[in-house]
Prior knowledge:
This protein is mainly alpha-helical. The chain has helices at residues 2-26, 37-44, 51-65, 80-84. Helix content is 56%, strand content 0%.
Amino acid sequence: MASTSASGRLLFSLSLVVLVLLVETTAPHGQAEAIDCGASCAYRCSKSGRPKMCLRACGTCCQRCGCVPPGTSGNENVCPCYANMTTHNGKHKCP
């Protein structure tokens, strides 16, 4: 009876270790936290001549891409999706 209990505990322990290893190897690593599009776009558009239009476009781009380049302009190499998004007319969409 004692060996059955010991083998049951061993089996449970091994199952627990395998489960932890599976979760650890399948979980995404290095994934950035969700971005605060409102704050990021407010800063990005802070020097814009048309802030309402800038905020609307930036918000759309941020929601679709999950990133906003740092600074008030440029730095688009940090977020290629943001840099490559265009309007229906083929113009650069994101400020």
